[in-house]
């Protein structure tokens, strides 16, 4: 009977040990999943938020350069018609490259809408530039009036598009950061559970060892008697 009881107790301990091992495996898988999520979030922050934010800054810089050059052409004699055409063509080419690069990143719906508006306004801006240059060859004053009455308003619309894109970048970046923090907290909790399970496993192994020794000693005493 004692042997049967000892075997039964060992079976229970073995089952408990197996459950603990399964928990350890489960916790390890969960931790790997969390690490993967954290890595994905940080990669997205860098590739889809940080780099595009830098590109937005560059886009804004090229637009401002075009504006400054156009103002210089219209209000001063620092640039000739041929020079302004070359400068604007170069800036437009760089803008197209940056916009295309920005489109290839992950975009939420709001970003897509604002980006489409920005592209539309930039194309309108390019047409206005050609119109202003052609008008200036006939009358600088007419071109200046056209610039002040129409092109300035278009600049304001482009600025709004850039501001909205930057705002969305910040919001999505905050969401990704919050998700990373949440995953880190979850990983920390899982690590603590793993430590607890490891301690329990150690106790179970100690119980098994002590129980085996007690059974052996009792059996030896029984044989001696």
What's the helix and strand layout?
Blueprint: H1 2-75, H2 81-103, H3 109-138, H4 140-224
Query: Which band does the percent of strand residues land in?
Result: under 5%
Please report the total strand number as a whole number.
0
Low-confidence region ranges: 220-224
The gyration radius over C-alpha positions equals: 35 Å
CATH topology: Four Helix Bundle (Hemerythrin (Met), subunit A)
Report the average pLDDT across residues. 78
Cα distance spanning the termini: 18 Å
Which sequence of SSEs, written as H and E, runs from N to C? HHHH
CATH domain class: Mainly Alpha
Describe this structure in words.
Helix 1 (2-75) packs antiparallel against helix 2 and helix 3 (109-138) runs antiparallel to helix 4. The protein has 225 residues and is mainly alpha-helical. It has helices at 2-75, 81-103, 109-138, 140-224. The model is unreliable at 220-224 (pLDDT under 50). The longest helix is centred in the last third of the chain and has 85 residues, at 140-224.
């Amino acid at each position: 009977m004692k042997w049967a009881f000892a075997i039964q107790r060992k079976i229970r301990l073995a089952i408990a040990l197996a459950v603990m091992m399964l928990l350890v495996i489960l916790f390890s898988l969960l931790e790997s999943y969390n690490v993967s999520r954290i890595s994905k979030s940080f990669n997205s922050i860098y590739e889809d938020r940080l780099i595009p934010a830098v590109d937005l800054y560059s886009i804004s810089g090229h637009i401002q350069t075009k504006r400054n050059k156009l103002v210089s052409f219209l209000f001063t004699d620092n640039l000739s018609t041929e020079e302004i055409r070359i400068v604007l063509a170069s800036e437009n080419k760089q803008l197209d490259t940056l916009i295309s690069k920005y489109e290839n990143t992950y975009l939420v719906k709001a970003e897509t809408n604002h980006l489409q508006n920005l592209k539309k306004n930039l194309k309108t801006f390019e047409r206005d530039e050609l119109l202003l240059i052609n008008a200036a060859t006939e009358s600088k004053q007419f071109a200046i009036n056209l610039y002040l009455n129409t092109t300035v308003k278009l600049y304001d619309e482009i600025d709004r598009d850039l501001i909205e894109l930057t705002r969305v970048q910040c919001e999505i970046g905050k969401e990704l950061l919050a998700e990373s923090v949440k995953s880190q907290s979850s990983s920390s909790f899982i690590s603590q559970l793993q430590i607890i399970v490891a301690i329990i496993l150690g106790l179970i192994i100690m119980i098994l060892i002590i129980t085996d020794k007690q059974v052996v000693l009792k059996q030896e005493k029984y044989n001696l008697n």
